[in-house]
Each structure stands twice: as structure tokens, then as C-alpha cells.
Amino acid sequence: MTRSIRAASVVTTVTRLNPESMSDTRPPQSTRFHALYQGARFLTAATKLQQTPADEGREVAFAGRSNAGKSSAINAICHQNALARTSKTPGRTQQLIFFELDETRRLVDLPGYGYAKVPERIKLEWQRHLSHYLESRQSLVGLVIVMDIRHPLTDYDRQMLTWGRRAGLSILLLLTKADKLKRGAASATRLAVERAVADDSGQVEVQLFSAPERQGLAQVQATLDRWLHVGTPELQTPTT
């Protein structure tokens, strides 16, 4: 089993900061595009792939270990407090939760992994469903893998990364709770993760993020805009 990367805790010298490597802590501009996320609403919950919405349009899925901050990240991105809810028993939720942005775009909250004390048979069943969803869903264009910056790239994260690459998805590794580390240590951890996932099979983006501090929020929304073709005429919501 591959061990996860430990968050860097000591940075001896910092000679120069690359502006592109530091996340903008300012809130995103209030545009009609960001209003798209503010208008997100619950669409449906599916325990089986047959229960998912029609496989059309574009959707982005969020995956992550329980307690990594996935729900907080989704809520921050959508400027809502309780859109994505956290189960009282981490890892127990086995449903795919779909949120509608408009008639053609969706966000999907995948079941948390790697924590719940459930039978191994159920864990394997979750993995089978997730793998099938990621590899067969035609409308799925991107995968956000949410990781606690203090415990990045666990074996479960690497498995999700493998599935995403196999499916040819655009991938963003979201290092949450960046406010828990000093700036230098957070940047060093990000660089370590970038090196660890460097691969010729496809580009993987890595972003520092903090829901309470709104760090990285504008960058994540910009990535989602690109994946979801926000602003692309053929996918604009029809006006009445």
C-alpha cells in the first residue's frame, strides 16, 4: 500500500514566491457566471446508476475521504451554507447527490470513502459503483478530488485518481483546510503533491483551498467554468 504524503511542517528559507503558486484569498467577482453556482439546488439522490439523471449536458463530480472537507468545499463554491450536508456518521452515505446549476450543468457529491466502519462487502460494492459511474457517465467531464492538506494522497485518493485518469476526465486535486498550515508549509505540500502526480497520461491540477478563508475559491470556480463550458453559447440556459 502506498503511504500518503505528509504535510510539510518546516520551511527553512523562502527566497521568492511565485504569484501563480499562491491562491487568491479574495472572494470572486459577483458575475452572472458565479451566480450560476449561487443558484445551485438539490436535484436528486441516487443509490443506483439507473436512478441518476439523464446522461446529457455536463457535470463535475466531487470525491474525497470522509472528513476531508468535501461538503464544506461544495457549499463554499456555491455560496450556500447547507447545500451539501455531512452525515452524522462519516462515510455512511452511499448515495450520489446531484445538484442542478441549470438545465445543462450539474455538480455531483460522491459518497465519502475510507472511513466508515461498514462490512468489507459494502465497501467493495461502493467502489464498484463509483468506478462504473466514473468510467461510463458520458456527461461527466471533470473530477474534483478533495484532500485534507495535512493528509494528502491516501491510497483511496490514488485509486480515485487512477479511475479518473482511466476515464479521461479533467482532474483537480483540492487541498482543503489550507488555513491549518502556515503559508510556506502549504505551498511546499502543494509542490510535493504536484510532483507526486506528474504523469504523461494527463494533466492534473492542484489547488490550495480553505472554505472558512475563501482561499482558492475564485480559482476553483474558474476551473469549473472551463470544464462546464460556462459562457459557451451552445450550453447557455435558454431565456424566456
Summarize the entry for a quick read:
It contains 6 helices and 7 strands. The protein is of the alpha/beta class and 240 residues long.
What does this molecule look like?
The protein is an alpha/beta fold. It has one domain (28-230): Rossmann fold (3-Layer(aba) Sandwich). Helices cover 29% and strands 19% of the residues. A seven-stranded mixed β-sheet has the order 1-3-4-2-5-6-7, sandwiched between helices. The chain is globular, with a radius of gyration of 17 Å. The model is unreliable at 8-31 and 233-240 (pLDDT under 50). One of its GO terms (cellular component) is cytosol.
Topology of this structure?
Layout: H1 32-38, E1 41-46, E2 58-64, H2 70-77, E3 96-102, E4 105-109, H3 120-136, E5 140-148, H4 155-166, E6 170-176, H5 183-197, E7 204-208, H6 217-227
Parallel strand pairs: 2-4, 2-5, 5-6, 6-7
Antiparallel strand pairs: 1-3, 3-4
Q: Which structural traits does this protein have?
A:
alpha/beta, GTP-bd, seven-stranded mixed β-sheet, nucleotide-binding, disordered C terminus, 240 residues, P-loop_NTPase, Rossmann fold, 29% helix
Q: What order do the SSEs take from the amino end to the carboxyl end, as H and E? A: HEEHEEHEHEHEH
- CATH homologous superfamily (4th level) name: P-loop containing nucleotide triphosphate hydrolases
Q: Tell me how many strands there are.
A: 7
Tell me the number of helical segments per DSSP (H or I, 4 or more residues long). Answer: 6
What strand line-up does the widest sheet have? 1-3-4-2-5-6-7
The end-to-end distance, rounded to whole angstroms, is 55 Å
Function: Necessary for normal cell division and for the maintenance of normal septation.
InterPro entries: G_ENGB_dom (IPR030393), GTP-bd (IPR006073), GTP-bd_ribosome_bio_YsxC (IPR019987), P-loop_NTPase (IPR027417)
Protein name: Probable GTP-binding protein EngB
Family: Belongs to the TRAFAC class TrmE-Era-EngA-EngB-Septin-like GTPase superfamily. EngB GTPase family.
